[in-house]
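Tutorial, part two.
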Amino acid sequence: MSKITRRNFLKVSGVAAAAAALTACGGSSSTASSAASGAASSEAASTAAKLDKIKVAVPNDTTNEARALTLLEKNGFFKLKADAGLTATKNDIEENPLNVTVDEVEAAQVPNVLQDEDYAVINSNYAISAGLNPMTDALAMEDGSSAYVNILVCKDGNQEEPKIKALAAALQSQKVKDFMDETYKGSVVSVVENPTDGYDSTVDYDALNGQTVSCAATPAPHCEVLEVCKEILAAKGITALVLDIDNTLTADRSQELPEEVAAWLAIMRKAGVKLTIVSNGAEKRVRPFAEKLGLAYLYRAAKPLPFALMVAQHRMGVKHRQMAMVGDQLYADRMAAALYGIPGLMVIPRGPDLGAQVVLKRKWEKKHWQEYYDRGGKTL
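Running the prediction step on this input gives:
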């Protein structure tokens, strides 16, 4: 057996020996993603004991068994009948010179039997749940030509339901694609060719407020992707933002507006989002900055107390559910948003803190920032 690599698996020649501790796993797709399956082997007891037979575990459901067998055939384990197609089973193995034994196992249990097999083909949702990393542990993975992708389905006749269309649009968003890329690093990938902002222009999102759409999915990665969709759908109703200044829009005590922030504000205005500055700073700090931007403002807001947010809401003339807070401090901005019951959109501080109180709070924040990230919190 020649050297095994992750993408260019193995070419089996002569007598095959599963001789090493070749640990690996496979991949499945996420919702609206390409599926990647990999082959993995457990540690072999000895080279000699494996010369005459190779044991491979594959999922026993129709779709994934055929998928696994196709991957194994592609990598030289055996040859399937020409007409086996997408419903192939081990009975469709036509040529088996290496004396490969295929063990059919319930898909979720394949990682658990890996120790008893020479190789296993595992869907990545089960591999990930079992602590395997498809990109580093797999000996082989399906390439981009795989016919297997996960799709969103609904009851016939519900295709044009606004909430179904809203979920479908969210799944095809750039935000979901970025989440897949950052979280799964290639073991789960999006096959959406032109990701969008996540919204369908034909859907009345305000009318959907308060409605629920139920979607069945496996825990990882599918439910994790759907959590991102929830964020996208929740944000659609936001038509007003309350903005902190120091280390959010600009550096602490600075009157200069960074170019990228100016560009972002322009995008928000063009989208019709109402903007108000709410800062704990004094009037002499807040007013010149706000007037330069042409924004309404509230100073000495006493965040995390939420009273200034209430004033800002009434001034902007929006409903409670249409407003979110943008800031950099957990104990001021995020807490104020939580107390007022609106989303808190956090940013990474733009520079060092100059106030002694803020410096002290930053020390307390370190632990809670990690907890924020652990719960899935994001920064803009």
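The first strand starts at residue 33 and ends at 34. In part three we will examine how such features are distributed along the chain.
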